[in-house]
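[09:14] KT: can someone run the structure on this one? pasting the chain below
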Amino acid sequence: MNNRIVSKEDWLAARKALLAEEKALKRRQDELAEKRRAMPVTRIEKPYAFRTEDGPASLADLFEGRRQLVIYHFMFGEDWAEGCPSCSFWADHFGGIVSHLKARDTSFACVSSASLDKLLAYRARLGWSFPWVSSNGTQFGEDFGVFFHEDGDHPDGYNYSGRPAKGELPGLSVFLQGDDGAVLHSYSAYSRGLEPLNTVYAVLDMTPLGRREDDLSYPMAWVKRRDQYRL
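[09:31] RB: done, structure tokens below
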């Protein structure tokens, strides 16, 4: 443990100093959120055919009559036996959000390239209830920067980096329904841009020990599907 042990008065002084920095950061985050909301939008012209529990659906159908749609691109390849452990870690935070988002005119769904049967079986195994649809047979993942062919050739790269990438990767995309019914793409996030969705990381970041990932082979090497931990 590297934490100094100090008097209550010194602890309070240190906490107030940190609080001033936290408030400054929060104000900056509010400014960025305002800029994010003001982002321009682009019209989605390509028709996508998803497989859902209720049958075939278009991207517009996934709005379910609401003004906004949030898609989490869940890594689950069509030839995979299980979903990605890291995406499963993220998905453990999605169960309770759907009703709250609906109350703010926003629909939510996970989308993966595996077959619908695989997705629903895996969802049942882990006890989730959020909507999950299959984009199998479409270019949805490729078009929204979460699937890359083996040659790694993609004009934007992953997370707009321009660097080659391969295979399945995670992301989040946000859509708005235009006044004329058009589907408009407003925002996408990848990599560490997805961290606000992860409450476990937010809680660990408030603790003295933190995430303890610096000495691992990669940051989430400790993460397992939650039914595979031995606790």
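[09:33] KT: thanks! The mean pLDDT is 95.
[09:34] RB: yep, looked fine to me
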